[in-house]
Amino acid sequence: MQPGRAIVERTQRTREEVQVYQKILVPIDGSETAMCGLKEAIKLAKALGSQLRLFHVVNEFVLDYSYGAGLYGANLIESLREGGQKIIQQAETFVRQQGVQADSVLLESIGGPAADLIIAQAREWPANLIVMGTHGRRGLRRFAMGSDAEGVVRGAPVPVLLVHDTGKEAKSSHAKAAPGGS
């Protein structure tokens, strides 16, 4: 047997025997930050032969009819659904173009933190790993806006890989927050 061939066979056997992170849950919301998480999940899926599940939440909490007549409620709900379906379809297309297998779940919710829904989906599927993008907010911004990523890390039944968005959007928000930043 050739030395190179033995390494390949051992690698294939190890991959089959270990079966680590075979089901990776990837919450997506259409943002660049979520795309960073998706790209990292694709890398893992390719390396490990994993299946991805794309997960998007349409949160109808914004439609609290007690504050108004609700005249536009039905149209807004339908718009949110269509937007969610578009996000899922675009992500599915991107994943397929990378040669990775994925399915998707679009969940409609009325209120509640997205983190709780992500955790529930991880249990239900069941996922072996959650990969998600994070804005990396700190201080008052995190307090005011909340952190789905932090909620997932605290309650997830499986390991969580957080991928920080280092793109243009993240750099500009860091520059604004840094003293003397330009």
What features would you describe in this structure?
The chain is globular. Helix content is 52%, strand content 18%. It is built from 7 helices and 5 strands; from the N terminus they run H-E-H-E-H-E-H-E-H-H-E-H. It has a single domain, classed as Rossmann fold (3-Layer(aba) Sandwich). The protein has 182 residues and is an alpha/beta fold. The longest helix is centred in the middle third of the chain and has 25 residues, at 73-97.
Please provide a brief summary of the model.
This protein has helices at residues 3-18, 32-48, 73-97, 114-124, 139-145, 148-155, 168-177, and strands spanning 23-27, 51-59, 102-109, 129-134, 160-164.
SSE pattern, N- to C-terminal? HEHEHEHEHHEH
Strand arrangement, major sheet:
3-2-1-4-5
What portion of residues belong to β-strands? 15-25%
Name of the CATH class: Alpha Beta
| Number of self-contained structural domains | 1
> Could you report the average pLDDT, rounded to the nearest whole number?
80
CATH architecture: 3-Layer(aba) Sandwich
Question: Topology, please?
Answer:
Elements: H1 3-18, E1 23-27, H2 32-48, E2 51-59, H3 73-97, E3 102-109, H4 114-124, E4 129-134, H5 139-145, H6 148-155, E5 160-164, H7 168-177
Parallel strand pairs: 1-2, 1-4, 2-3, 4-5
Helix pairs in contact: 4-6
Keywords, separated by commas or semicolons:
disordered C terminus, 182 residues, globular, Rossmann fold
